[in-house]
Amino acid sequence: MQVKSSIEIEAETAGQSERSGRAPAREVALALLEYCEARDWAGHDPYDALNSPVWRRIPFLNFKLARLALTQVNKRSPVNLRPLLGIGPKHNPKGLALFVSSLLSLSRSGVAEKRLAARDLCERLLESRSPDHDLHCWGYSFPWQTRWGLVPAGAPNLVCTTFAANALLDAYEETGESRFAESARSAAEYLVDELYYSSAGGSVAGFAYPLPSMRHEIHNANFLAAALLARAGAVCGDGRFLEPALAGARYSAAKQHRDGSWAYGERRNYRWVDHFHTGFNLCALRELGNHARTDEFEPVMARGFDYYRRHFFRDDGAPKYYNNRTYPIDAHCVAQAIITLVELRDLRPGSERLARKVMDWAHSGLWDSRGYFHYRVYAVGKNRISYMRWTQAWMLRALATLLEMPGRTGPGPSGAGGHAEERRPACRTGDRSEIASSSRSEGA
To answer: Residue-wise over 333-363: b if at least 16 C-beta within 10 A, else e?
Structure first.
C-alpha cells in the first residue's frame, strides 16, 4: 500500500484544515509522527537509569538508596547523561501501545493512513509481553526502584498491561483479527487471577500495583483495571470480568474526597493529588460506564471533572502538575489534559476550547523545531530531553484524540469510537497455554 507523504497530505487538506482550525495540530502531529517513526518508536525514558551497564559494574552501589538517587539524578538532569552511562534507546511496551492507538486514530480522522504501521506495532507488542507467564501481561523495558522494592525489567504490572490490552482491542476493532482480542482477554484474566484482591467483608477491593504482592490501594490502578475488564468483557462477551471491575471501581469511587478530588492512594505517603492520575481516573470511569452500560459513576465523574477543571489549569492553558502547585509543567500532564478534556467535554461547556488552549500552550512552550516535545518546564529553566514513552507517545496520543474529535458522534473512550458493538470475536475459551502459544507464533 502506498502511503502519502506529509507534504502530500498537507497539500490535499490545507483548505479544509484552515476552515476547521485544525491546521496547527495536524502539522504538529505529522511532524511528531515523522520524528517517532524515523527512530523506530524507540527512545529513552525518565526512569531508565538502571539500564546502565556502567551502574551494574559497580556492585557496592547496588542498593536501594543508591538506585533511587541515580534514577532521580538521571530523571531531573537537564543534560542527558544516558550516553555517558551507556543507556541506549529501547522500545517500551506502553509506548508501543500508545503509538498503536494513536496511529489507528490518525487513520480514522484522515490525518495519515497508518493502519499497516499500527498492525506492525501490534506484532511487536505481542512479542514484548512478559516471559514466563501463561497469561498475557506486560512490563516496562527497564528495572525501576520504588520506595518498597526493586521492580525488574519486564516484570508485568497493571498499568503497562492495561494500555497494551486496550491497544490490542483498538486493533481488533479496526482489523477484526481475533487474536488481538484473545490477547486482551488473556490480559483481563491476568488482572483478575493475579492482581485482584478483596477483604472478607468487602470493605476493600482493588488491584495490586506495581507488583502482585503490593496491595497498596492505588486509585488510578483500580479504575484502569476496571475499565479494561469492562471493555474486554463487552468485546469478548465474557461476563465474569464485570464483578471485580465494579468492586474495584466502587471502592475507589467511595474514596473520592468531598471536593471531587482523589489522593493518589490511601496510604499515608500517597496523599498527593496530581494532574495526570486524576485524568486517568476520569477517563477510565467514562470508559467503564460506556462498556458496563451503567450510569452508576456519573455523579462521581461529574464531581471529579469539575474539580479537575477548577484546580489543574493556569489561565494561559498550562496544566499544573499538582492541585496546589504548578511546577513542573510536564508534557505527560499536557497530553492527559487534552485527552481528558476531549473525552469528557460533554460534562462542562468550554472543555473543547480549553483543550485547544492547552495545545496552543504546548506548541509555544514545549515544541521543538526538530519535531518533538520537550520534557518539562520549571519555574526557572526547561528540560529539553526527548523521552519516547513519557513525552512523544503521549503527545501523539493527545494530538490524535484532538484531531479525531470532530468526527465523534458522542462521548466515548478514546480509540473505542463505538466499535465494540459492531463485532464480536470468537474469543476462545480453550486452555491458557493454547491462547498463549497461538499469540506467540502468530505475532512473531
So the answer is: bbbbbbbbbbbbbebeeebeebbbbbbebbe
Domain of residue 55: give its range.
Answer: 49-89
267 lies in a domain? yes
Are 66 and 143 members of one domain?
no
Mean pLDDT of 192-219: 92
Tens-place pLDDT, residues 236-250: 999 999 999 999 999
* Position 3 in a domain: no
For residue 439, how many C-alpha atoms fall within 13 Å in the half-sphere facing its CB?
33
Q: What average pLDDT does this structure show over 3-27? A: 49
- If one counts every other C-beta atom within 10 angstroms of the C-beta of residue 390, the result is 26
Whether the CB-CB separation of 137 and 161 falls below 8 Å is answered with yes
Q: 233-255: string of b/e by CB count within 10 Å (b at 16+)? A: bbbbebeebbebbbbbbbbbbee
Q: Is there a single domain that holds both residue 71 and residue 118?
A: no
Residue identified by cell 483498538 is 170
246 and 257 inside one domain: yes
Is 13 within a domain? no
Helices 23-38 and 351-365: angle between axes, nearest 10 degrees: 50
Closest CA to 343 of 105, 17, 93, 41: 105
Q: What is the CATH number of the domain that holds 365?
A: 1.50.10.20
